[in-house]
UniProtKB/TrEMBL annotation:
Classification of source organism: Bacteria, Bacillati, Bacillota, Clostridia, Lachnospirales
Protein name stated in the entry: ABC transporter substrate-binding protein
Domain Leucine-binding protein: 32-374
Native source organism of the sequence: Jingyaoa shaoxingensis
SUPFAM superfamilies to which the protein is assigned, alphabetical: Periplasmic binding protein-like I
Family assignment from sequence similarity: Belongs to the leucine-binding protein family.
Length: 388
């Protein structure tokens, strides 16, 4: 059967493929191309991990219905990293050493990918982090490149730069406070960059507090912040802690604007915050606000009947980026895939266009600002201070 050529977007093609029975293709199922996924498939953030795996499986289904990769079936193998570094390393090693995957997608936690990076260099199978944004996901503490570590998201320093700039330049806020999770490299890194950018622009840091994941009472730290009366409080935590911190802050009379990063980005933010984040902001990926991503989201919801989480877009883009690399190399050899990922000067996924810096393996891509307004998360738009 001749392969059909469709001049439609990836998301539209997916809609056609899954909605119309797709294309009957003879695939080499004896020698599948195996792609691994490591994510938190259990625990407090399982909704993100499961969304990433779902996105990969949905996209693999579409790819197989269109003829696979190099005529071979794509097989996704997902393992639970539990959002913990040791478990994530164990999952990565099992995928490589026992399952024989050619590449791995995940995780969305910097602490996990920092731990995986050295192991990936040793085993020589590329890993593509989804939302793991700490600078040391792809380079070590001395700035040396981890040759087998890549990422799809922008980095902590960029998110901190955007948050600090938006708070100072766009919102006109002049004093800030920060509360960080000292056990989480993501929180401390993004928080430090937020404050650095804000103060470099002329703002003043009036309070800096620390806590840790698992704490249920932040009132001691928040009482000190309340006394300083900052215009903005930077809260670079994951959404569950953000909502708890915000509610306790409001109970103590803190009226500051709260500002965060992509750890806030979930459909559960509004329900969990109980109104405490009204008028607050965060920086994250554009999510389902881009046309192709919106179309994909419709197909995804029909397939899984669950709320949309942006991690599924990362899952799609991870698979599609690996597909592009394999086709360019003409092989699913991990080293060949690694070389093609590093050489990427153009990749168009559901999260938008990106290129890769071969010196750092960091992508160049757009970020967006979101505002909690009228009890919903509203998309403000792509924010690039350099274009102003």
């Amino acid at each position: 059967m001749k392969k059909r050529v469709l001049t439609v977007t990836a998301a539209a093609a997916l809609t056609l493929a899954l909605g119309c029975g797709a294309f009957a293709q003879d695939l080499d199922t004896e020698n599948p191309i195996k792609i691994g996924y490591v994510g938190a498939l259990s625990g407090d953030t399982a909704l993100w991990g499961q969304a990433g795996l779902n996105g990969m499986e949905l996209t693999a289904k579409q790819i197989n219905e269109e003829g696979g990769i190099l005529g071979r079936e794509v097989q996704i193998i997902g393992l639970d990293g539990k959002g913990a570094p040791d478990d994530s390393v164990t999952a990565y090693k099992k995928l490589v050493e026992e399952e024989g995957v050619c590449a791995v997608v995940g995780t969305n936690f910097s602490s996990c990918n920092i731990a995986i990076a050295a192991v990936a260099d040793e085993l020589e199978v590329p890993v593509i982090a989804t939302a793991a944004s700490n600078d040391q996901v792809t380079v070590d503490s001395d700035g040396n490149l981890h040759p087998y570590s890549f990422r799809l998201c922008f980095i902590d320093s960029y998110m901190g730069y955007l948050a600090g700039t938006y708070a100072y330049d766009e919102l006109g806020l002049k004093t800030c406070a920060v509360i960080e999770d000292i056990t989480d490299s993501y929180s401390t890194s993004v928080g430090d960059y937020m404050v650095q950018t804000f103060t470099d622009l002329g703002g003043e840091l009036v309070a800096s507090e620390e806590a840790q994941n698992g704490d249920n009472d932040f009132r001691a730290q928040l009482t000190k912040i309340a006394a300083a009366q900052p215009d903005v409080v930077f809260i670079p935590w994951n959404y569950e802690n953000v909502c708890l911190i915000a509610q306790q802050a409001r109970e103590l009379g803190i009226t500051s604007v709260f500002f965060g990063a992509d750890g806030w980005d979930t459909t559960e933010l509004i329900d969990l915050s109980n109104g405490a984040l009204e008028g607050c902001y965060y920086v994250s990926r554009p999510g389902f606000n881009l046309p192709d991503a919106a179309a994909y989201g419709e197909v995804y919801q029909k397939e899984y009947n669950v709320a949309l989480e942006s991690e599924c877009l990362y899952g799609n883009d991870g698979v599609q980026w690996i597909k592009q690399a394999i086709e360019a190399a003409g092989s699913d050899d991990p080293k060949a895939i690694r070389d093609q990922l590093e050489a990427t000067d153009s990749f168009d996924g559901l999260l938008g266009h990106m290129s890769v810096d071969p010196e750092t393996h960091n992508p160049s891509r757009d970020a967006a600002i979101f505002e909690v307004k009228d009890n919903e998360v509203q998309y403000v738009g792509i924010y690039d201070p350099e274009s102003k």
